[in-house]
Design brief:
Layout: H1 2-38, H2 44-58, H3 64-80, H4 84-96, H5 102-118, H6 122-138, H7 145-165, H8 169-185, H9 195-208, H10 213-229, H11 236-248, H12 252-268, H13 276-291, H14 295-309, H15 312-409, H16 415-422, H17 424-433, H18 439-449, H19 454-460, H20 465-479, H21 487-492
Helix pairs in contact: 1-2, 2-3, 3-4, 3-5, 4-5, 5-6, 5-7, 6-7, 7-8, 8-9, 9-10, 9-11, 10-11, 11-12, 11-13, 12-13, 13-14, 15-16, 16-17, 19-20
Length: 496
């Protein structure tokens, strides 16, 4: 009897001690997550460190929901640092944990979809977002109606980004307008915490598609007001949009003010030197100082923008995107192969039924061919000399053109020289229109003259597509090209 009492006492002590330990660890995890939240916009790397420490502690306790939540924190911070593959891994690890919180599951799935879209898997991300919307519609909202509204706002915003990155701009505007519609219908106290990001996304789309310049300022300012209202620590993206807007409107002093404020806030947030948005800012600063006649600063910021393009991290991001695109193509190819298997059966039936008609057609064509053969032989002999002469001339021209295209695709320094040799009138026309036109601008317009698309220019010159769209928009403003006129068509029209 005495032995049983001792065993019971020891078991009770161990259980009580275990509960106390778990409570203590959970308290430590909660504190670390609060610290991670507080440093998210001021020091992203430190925010990630807090989240990882919380995640390591959570692995030693039985609270499944808290453990999954720490994976979400880690995934979001890794995403902020553009470490998208690691972020997806963290989100997947969180989803493998069995827990019942529908909201946390949605957040983890949404994070996975977001980072897949950042890797270029936009079609996959679109499908995932649509599944999430269906899940929310099917779920009984009950007392969580307000929270689901916020979740739908985030999903519409991110779904619009996937459509935009997939070149489906009309669908992108529809989705972001749905997000804004939810924002405006919810009472002030119930507005989603990402309201400033929604308005900034709309401003970004307008900026990238060269539409409604006044609306760009409206939504960027609205985003800034929302961010300040909820007391955010950092406004670099809002300042960046406003700076680029003022540059387009030729308000160069205002442009400089906002662009430098954006850089200051980026440094305050601890964003890395190879952060892609810094490329847009440096390039716009260079162009702004060019307009103000400050050559020294123009060259300074042009060199800074070039240094980002030469950075190994930037190149690695491009390689990751290319690998993701290849994976998506392979998936699509597998699906098409399955469809082809069914098509073969249909083709066999069609061939069997049409064989008689085909044979008759061949016999008829043979008779026609024989009757014309003699005439054709005479024509061939008559034009043989002319044809050889034309082929030689075309070969010379084709070789020159292929060499030009090859230098463009390899972004060689000799590209502009070769282009000017082949199209001297084009270069002379541009210089007569603007005596201060730079070689960089001439090279960009040469790509457009050769009918390279926005995506191709971005790929072959190692810049983002958004940077190419931004540059097109600046040139439209500079040369007063109407938005309804095709950019490449206008460039070609300079030479009759």
């Amino acid at each position: 009897m005495k032995c049983k009492s001792i065993i019971f006492f020891i078991s009770f002590f161990l259980f009580f001690h275990s509960e106390l330990y778990s409570q203590k660890v959970e308290s430590q995890i909660d504190s670390l997550l609060v610290l991670s939240d507080s440093t998210l916009y001021s020091n992203i790397k430190q925010s990630l460190a807090y989240a990882k420490k919380a995640n390591n502690l959570a692995k030693n306790i039985d609270n499944k929901k808290l453990k999954a939540n720490t994976y979400l924190y880690v995934a979001v911070r890794l995403g902020e640092l553009t470490q998208y593959e690691e972020a997806i891994g963290a989100a997947k690890a969180g989803l493998k944990i069995p827990f019942d919180d529908i909201h946390l599951k949605i957040e983890l799935k949404e994070a996975k979809a977001i980072f897949n879209s950042y890797l270029g898997l936009n079609s996959y991300a679109i499908q995932e977002y649509q599944k999430l919307l269906s899940l929310i519609e099917e779920y009984n909202e009950g007392d969580d109606k307000e929270l689901f509204r916020k979740t739908k706002t985030n999903i519409y915003q991110n779904l619009s980004a996937s459509y935009y990155n997939n070149y489906q701009t009309d669908s992108a505007f529809i989705m972001i307008n749905k997000a804004i519609d939810i924002l405006q219908k919810v009472p002030e106290k119930g507005k989603p915490i990402n309201g400033s990001e929604v308005y900034l996304t709309k401003a970004s789309y307008l900026l990238g598609t060269e539409k409604q310049s006044d609306s760009i300022r409206f939504y960027a300012n609205l985003s800034l007001q929302e961010a300040k209202k909820r007391k955010d620590d950092n406004f670099w993206d809002q300042y960046r949009h406003l700076g680029i807007y003022h540059f387009y409107e030729k308000n160069y002093d205002q442009a400089l003010k906002f662009l430098h404020k954006s850089l200051e806030d980026m440094d305050k947030a601890g964003l890395p030197d190879d952060f892609l948005s810094k490329y847009d800012i440096y390039l716009t600063l260079s162009d702004t100082y060019e307009q103000k006649g400050d050559v020294k600063k123009q060259i300074l910021y042009l060199k800074k923008s070039d240094s980002i393009l030469k950075n190994d991290t930037f190149k690695n991001k491009q390689e990751v995107s290319e690998v993701a695109d290849q994976q998506l193509k392979e998936k699509e190819s597998t699906f098409l192969d399955k469809i082809k298997q069914y098509q073969y059966y249909i083709y066999a039936i069609v061939i069997l039924l049409g064989s008689t008609l085909i044979i008759s057609y061949i016999v008829f064509k043979k008779k026609i061919f024989e009757s014309k053969k003699e005439v054709n032989q005479k024509n061939v002999l008559l034009h043989q000399t002319e044809k050889k002469s034309e082929e030689l001339q075309n070969k010379v021209e084709d070789d020159r053109f292929e060499k030009l295209i090859d230098s463009a695709k390899k972004n060689k320094a000799s590209f502009l020289i070769l282009f000017e040799q082949q199209y001297p009138d084009f270069i002379q026309t541009l210089r007569s229109m603007n005596a201060k036109v730079t070689n960089s601008e001439l090279s960009f317009l040469a790509y457009a003259f050769l009918n390279f698309s926005t995506k191709e220019i971005a790929y072959y010159t190692n810049v983002t597509e958004k940077a190419v769209q931004t540059r097109k928009y600046r040139i439209r403003k500079k040369y007063e090209i109407p938005t309804e006129v095709d950019f490449n068509g206008w460039v070609k029209s300079l030479v009759k």
